[in-house]
Here is the input.
Amino acid sequence: MKHLKHIILSAIIACFAQVATADHADGDAKRGETVFKKCRSCHKVGDGARNRVGPQLNLLFQRAAGSVEGFKYSASMLRAGADGLVWDHASLDTYLENPKSLISKTRMNFRGLKDEQDRADVMAYLRQFSDDPSNIPEASPTTEATDHSVDPEILALQGDPEYGEYLSSECVSCHQIDGADTGIPSITNWPIEDFVIAMHAYKDKKRVHPVMQMMAGRLSAEEIAGLAAYFENVGE
Amino acid sequence: MKLNRRNFIGSAAAVSATLSAPMVMGAAHGKPKVVVIGGGAGGATVARYLAKDSKGMIDVTLVEPTRTYYTCFFSNLYIGGFREFASIGHTYGKLAADYGINVIHDWAIGVDRDAKTVTLAGGGTLPYDRLVLSPGIDFKEGAVPGWDVTAQQKMPHAYKAGSQTQLLKAQLEAMPQGGTYCMVAPPNPFRCPPGPYERISMVAHHLKANNATAKILILDPKPKFSKQGLFQEGWSNHYDGMIEWVGPDFGGDKVEVRPDAMEVVIDGEVTKVDVCNVIPAMKAGRIAEIAGVTNEAGWAPVHAATMATKADENIHVLGDSSHQGDMPKSGFAANSQAKVAAMAIRGALTGSKVFPAKFTNTCWSLIDTDDGIKVGASYEATDEKIAKTDGFISKTGEDAALRKATYEESVGWYDGITADMFG
Here is the structure.
């Protein structure tokens, strides 16, 4: 019933959103590219975009929720897709404004874009990658992997998931192993590279959280690789 | 080695511990046995990790008197009205059903270190290969003149969560308008260093909304306390003029209480109060003393790398009861030490791999709505002690968004650590 309610809700919102779209005309794709900076540490779009912490966003419009191959979605997102949720201007607008209002247990740990124009702009930007696969620009602005550069040798390390499991006991005093993310982000099922890059960004004090700087600060590159290898597949 | 089976005094008498004797004695199979006493942040965690990681190779028994365990951490938030009491209560169903831990609700009243057995108040005897004691704290007799456990209904400590916490909250809510709430703060070392001061913040939060002319008096034997600058900044921001802190320079270390008259005597001067929260000096939970693993100060010295006691290599002590070095006595610390101990015990009993010990602690405190602060550190095991390697603390003058995020983080941590303890 709950999911049905979501769909009805989004249908109602869809009616209003069409009016809103008319008011706003189209979003500004150029400006949307700037807004997308908030998204791109997790989402890639454009030529060669792969799934990262979030699914890749090529061909987003008109695709069923939870349908990108190879991405580990929350059960809620998969259910929404099965219930018929399709990403269009209206549903995306609702989702981007407050992700958890549409998909209550989404793994997307993002508070939302409260500004309507920001949402319109970022959707205009994303739409460029959706109309037709052949339209995807050659030089994608977001295919660079990261918000922080890490030595390729470190990225190439093969982590030992068993060692990672032992080390993970320190992580799970705060981060929940079932992927729940109230107050503290989920760290389960991340792509290895994103996990490693994020941890090194804390270790190098590029990311600011003091607890994480401390935790990552004393982990070696091998240990971080082990944790990444363990958390990638935990709970599956 | 000495046989040490003193009579258990205190609350055991009040508990009808008539459970059937556990069927562990003389079990036919040869699996190594670990008995864990105390089902809090240290004990529940070590039991769960031993059972989970040994994959059935170790028999794990957890002895805990209460069926519903109320966490001391976040009990202040209940006093402040930020949590329901039920939300800090946890049961042991998952540890028994999902992890195969033999959970026994009884008091451990004796330890025979030669025979390697534990005696229960209900009459059972549990053999062990390794014994883990994680009994939290007890209070030192005579620490606050005029107060003993028989006075805890009039002047609650509320420093073991449960009915004491509910009593203190009820007394706070019943305070007359313009009345005085007094806290007798404990000397070092004690459980949860920021705890008394977070409690003061929560009491002030309640009074500000319900009894704005009331006063809070803290009588403190210590010249300084945890996160002092942060708390005092918060108190002056949120509760200006309500809270008076009396340190040892002004008699905070010379306090006597008169529970029947509801009076406190500060360096000879008598003051009438309406609520008096006496948090006496502490020592290890009683079973550690009964086992004979404590020192003169009342705590159990342990080896940092394994949490095994210096008195007996087959007995490990976790959390508040242990004397380990630089870590504060906190639920987070006990949880962290439990994982190190579980790894060491598994290594000793089953030959599993033992990695270098690492410890962490973070303590969050709430000052007022959405005004959270934290302090934390990382640690390693040296030959002498658990030694601090790095640390951090919230800063004064942080913006409201960061403080709110810190509070939200603490709520997330609570869910995380309780899942890590109870499954």
